[in-house]
Amino acid sequence: MMRRVFLTATPLSCLMLASPFAATAQDTNGGKITRFHDPSTPIRQQETWHIFSTGNGISTRTSTDLESWKEGPPVFKELPAWHRDVVSDHKGYLWAPDIIRQGGRYLLYYSVSGWGKNTSAIGLASSPTLDSKDPAYQWKDEGIVIRSGKEDAYNAIDPQLFADTDGRLWMVFGSFWTGIQLTELDAKTGLRHPENRKIHQLAWHESIEAAALLKHDGFYYLFVNWGLCCRGVDSTYEMRVGRSKEITGPYLDAAGNELVTGGGTLFMQSEGNRIGPGHPSFIREKDAIRMFFHYYDGNRRGHPTLGDATLEWNDNGWPKAGNKP
């Protein structure tokens, strides 16, 4: 699993500043967000939805209808000093954020990493509000949640949060290396659980990352991405899925193959102008499960664009992507 040529192993979140997809300026096309990578889970405060994405200091946008979006200020104007302790030449481009509300605070997780390496860390910032006009608005650095280096078998990027119905808080993460990992967090602090620091390997493939968890009808569904991103219309990203009765696995695909040994049922792939869909997140909205992701728009020279769809379920309980709401 470690025989990897990293010149061709390009993680979804690893957007170089020189990339044409790294632009953070607002660019809308018929209500769609373009020039947009790695959407967080959308989160609502009062009547406003907030979404975060890869960018300088972490990009932010707001909406009242999940359709038309406005650009907001970056999360970080000044970067925490520990970023350069992890990556000495880090320049502030932060990848693949995700957000959750716990204990009256908004907890924002994000990736600090170097291109093609597992010298990485997942950081945490917190704020009492998401309203940038509120006097209480301020992102507080909470430090490192987990980090990785060349001595580790995993890559600590691409966090996605999952609050279970029993009150426990979990984080899936990982990119390439030994694949997708799961660890429990302390629901009060948002950091690693002091009494359960075990890391569970959930899925593996030679090119895998950007995992997301969803619970439905007694199963935990693990969505992952295979293939290569960040190549515009040449991107090969596709989403795969497996499920388990236990959050820690084992996760099986529809044919009974374990995801940890390379299994995964195809969920979404390139179709028409929607090329390389990836990095999903889910919300429950109006009695439906709605999925957000990004793709490369073949009608717009491969610009990365925010997409969304509702989930539908077949008779055997496997998800499929329905139409846009």
From TrEMBL:
Coiled coil: none annotated. Pfam families: Glyco_hydro_43. InterPro entries: GH43_arabinanases, Glyco_hydro_43, Glyco_hydro_43_endo_a_Ara-ase, Glyco_hydro_beta-prop_sf. The record marks 279 as: Important for substrate recognition. It comes from the Bacteria. The active site is at residues 38, 209. Keywords: Glycosidase, Hydrolase, Signal. The keyword rRNA processing does not apply. One of its GO terms (molecular function) is arabinan endo-1,5-alpha-L-arabinosidase activity. Pathway: Glycan metabolism; L-arabinan degradation. GO terms for biological process: carbohydrate metabolic process. The record marks 158 as: Important for catalytic activity, responsible for pKa modulation of the active site Glu and correct orientation of both the proton donor and substrate. Residues 1-25 form the signal peptide. The keyword Transmembrane helix does not apply. Transmembrane segments: none annotated. Substrate binds at residues 38, 116, 155-158, 175-177. Belongs to the glycosyl hydrolase 43 family. This is Arabinan endo-1,5-alpha-L-arabinosidase. The lineage of its organism: Bacteria, Pseudomonadati, Verrucomicrobiota, Verrucomicrobiia, Verrucomicrobiales.
